[in-house]
Amino acid sequence: AAAGLSYVGAYVINTYKSYDNFLQDKYALLPAVIIICVAVVMFVIGLIGCCATFRESRVGLGLFLAIILIIFIAEVSAFVLGFVYREKVKTDVQGTMRSVFEKYDGKNSESIVVDYLQEQLHCCGVKNYSDWTTTQWFNSTGNNSVPHSCCQQEAKNCTGHLDHPQEL
Questions:
Q1: Which stretches are transmembrane (predicted)?
Q2: CATH number at residue 134
Q3: Domain count along the chain
Q4: Under DSSP, is residue 145 helix (H, G, I), strand (E, B) or coil?
Q5: Over the range 99-112, which residues count as b (16 or more CB within 10 Å of their CB) and which as e?
Q6: Whole-structure pTM over 0.70, yes or no?
């Protein structure tokens, strides 16, 4: 279990590097760090439980049970907090994404991240392609189109024009 949690925490931290322009709040990594810390603690507690079992120590097994119950309570608390604050996180991420989309020019590092995000998640804009119509990039190009990263991979001749929304 500790190895599995360590993998999940490391995966989240590694994935964060691709999307750090969208998550300006550095506390977004806090859950991943907590997961890794819990994994380390679980590994140590597992060793305590194994040693207590081999020695047949009632005190050691009682301590092991108490620690496991504390960890269970902490995990339930984390789940409840995540559930309660999910809308706030969603609103914060959407606001940050909109500000990054405003800075899109097709060349800067934030533009590369936007293109990468849209290609990887097979999406266009924050909610849909119409989010691009309010950006400076859309107005400056004057050709009534969205970036090519909005195009579906199957659409071979996609130009990003809003005349063909089925290709986006």
A1: 28-54, 61-85
A2: 1.10.1450
A3: 1
A4: strand
A5: ebbeebeeeeebbe
A6: no
